[in-house]
């Protein structure tokens, strides 16, 4: 397997009449030709940057990654070029760990990897491996060539609506790929796994807040495939000395407080994106406004209620999990604030954060959306001493907005400058 090979990615874009989010829609879609043009440019720039990364990796001294060093943990981060994964890599590097990112860039940003390599350019700190977890040989080669101590597994497609339209893609990407990764870990005797799961495994709970004992009855292929991956991990750990932590988190927002990283989905992925991205697009004039689906739910203001967790807090939970993982046991934790925020409240906070009076239209409910979902994070506080710190919604959105405003074209602007 080569490090950062010069490879053209396949990109898929679809023109749709509206861009959907949980309880919210984008106002209009982009013309297909406009989106395709952006995808082509992104593919070209990604190929150039992968070539640059390959050249820099060649001079970094790969032997440092293939040997264990006392006092240094070498962590493999799958999906480390993505929004959450890149923030996790930043924290691992900040804490002095050695990191290998593996990503096929189907959802991640090569620009985020470049930023990380610029911040931590020393030999033996960070390497990027372009590979797909569905390629068993590539995964085994990765473990064979690197002295991995632990794995943080973020890599996954993660859009509920998309999973309904393409269920087999989700079962393959999440369930099957996790099995491939787990088998490679077993074969190469890597015995610590931190797994990125989701509250979607709970489905539509009858009672709030959601605890770790809430029955898991997922209602879409995304949640179902994640639950299947959880079950595989739990079943294997019961028969081994592997240490595993499963983190089920809620709606992720925010960005690095120091402005080094942010959320930058490529144009063809934005129709599936997070509510914050939709608000920012509206604030920047990329779309004419927002369409909120449902204003007559049985909630305090009639709109859906969700639990929004800052990405920095989420990464901190992963670090706590890594620290407390116990051989032969599986720890399962909800990661949320424990506080529900309505879509209307979120949009109002976004208006304040951006200083833009975003135009909002309220439509009928969307089938399948449930009124209220928020966590009970008391277990992770009790057992891992973790609690959310970035709980001021306006401040969290302001931080993310500053990055987005400074990087209106996302990481492609950073790529073009190199």
Work out the number of β strands.
15
Describe the largest sheet.
7 strands, parallel
Q: Give me the side-by-side strand order of the main sheet.
A: 5-4-3-6-7-8-13
Strand content: 15-25%
Sequence stretches where pLDDT stays below 50 over 5 or more residues: 1-22, 24-30, 413-418
**Outline type:** globular
> Gyration radius, to the nearest Å?
20 Å
Q: Can you give the mean pLDDT?
A: 87
Q: What is the number of domains?
A: 1
Question: CATH superfamily, please?
Answer: NAD(P)-binding Rossmann-like Domain
Class inferred from helices and paired strands? alpha/beta
CATH topology: Rossmann fold
The topology string of helices and strands comes to EEHHEHEHEHEHHEHEEHEEEHEEHEHHH
What does this protein structure show overall?
The chain is 40% helix and 15% strand. By secondary structure, it is α/β, with parallel strands linked by helices. It has one domain: Rossmann fold (3-Layer(aba) Sandwich). The protein has a 7-stranded parallel sheet, with helices on both faces. Strand 7 (192-198), helix 8 and strand 8 (243-249) form a beta-alpha-beta unit. Helix 3 crosses helix 10 (311-324), helix 5 packs parallel to helix 7 (167-187) and helix 9 crosses helix 11 (343-354). Residues 1-22, 24-30 and 413-418 have low confidence and may be disordered.
């Amino acid at each position: 397997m080569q490090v950062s090979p010069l490879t053209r990615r396949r990109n898929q874009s679809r023109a749709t009449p509206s861009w959907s989010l949980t309880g919210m829609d984008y106002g209009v879609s982009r013309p297909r030709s406009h989106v395709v043009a952006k995808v082509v440019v992104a593919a070209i720039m990604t190929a150039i940057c992968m070539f640059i990364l390959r050249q820099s990796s060649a001079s970094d001294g790969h032997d440092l990654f293939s040997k264990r060093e006392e006092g240094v943990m070498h962590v493999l981060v799958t999906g480390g070029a993505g929004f959450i994964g890149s923030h996790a890599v930043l924290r691992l590097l900040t804490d002095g760990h050695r990191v290998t990112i593996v990503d096929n860039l189907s959802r991640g940003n090569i620009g985020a990897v470049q930023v990380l390599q610029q911040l931590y350019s020393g030999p033996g700190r960070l390497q990027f491996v372009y590979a797909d977890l569905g390629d068993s040989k590539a995964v085994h080669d990765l473990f064979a060539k690197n002295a991995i101590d632990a794995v943080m597994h973020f890599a996954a497609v993660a859009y509920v609506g998309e999973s309904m339209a393409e269920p087999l893609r989700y079962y393959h990407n999440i369930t099957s790929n996790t099995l491939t990764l787990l088998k490679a870990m077993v074969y190469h005797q890597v015995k610590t796994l931190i797994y990125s799961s989701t509250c979607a495994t709970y489905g539509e709970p009858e009672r709030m807040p959601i605890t770790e004992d809430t029955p898991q009855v997922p209602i879409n292929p995304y949640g179902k495939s994640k639950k299947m991956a959880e079950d595989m991990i739990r079943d294997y750990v019961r028969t081994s000395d592997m240490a595993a932590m499963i983190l089920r988190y809620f709606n992720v927002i925010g960005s690095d407080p120091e402005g080094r990283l942010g959320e930058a989905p490529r144009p063809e992925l934005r129709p599936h994106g997070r509510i914050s991205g939709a608000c920012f697009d509206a604030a920047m004039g990329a779309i004419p406004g927002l369409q909120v689906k449902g204003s007559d739910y049985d909630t305090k203001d009639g709109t859906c209620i969700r639990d929004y967790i800052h990405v920095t807090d989420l990464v901190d939970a992963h670090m706590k999990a890594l620290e407390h993982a116990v051989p032969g046991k599986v720890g399962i934790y909800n990661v949320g604030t424990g506080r529900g925020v309505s879509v209307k409240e979120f949009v109002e906070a976004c208006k304040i954060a951006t200083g833009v009076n975003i135009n909002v239209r309220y439509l009928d409910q969307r089938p399948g959306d449930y009124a209220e979902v928020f966590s009970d994070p008391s277990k992770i506080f009790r057992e891992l001493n973790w609690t959310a710190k970035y709980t001021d919604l306006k401040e969290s959105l302001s931080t993310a907005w500053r990055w987005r405003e400074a990087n209106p074209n996302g990481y492609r602007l950073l790529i073009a400058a190199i």
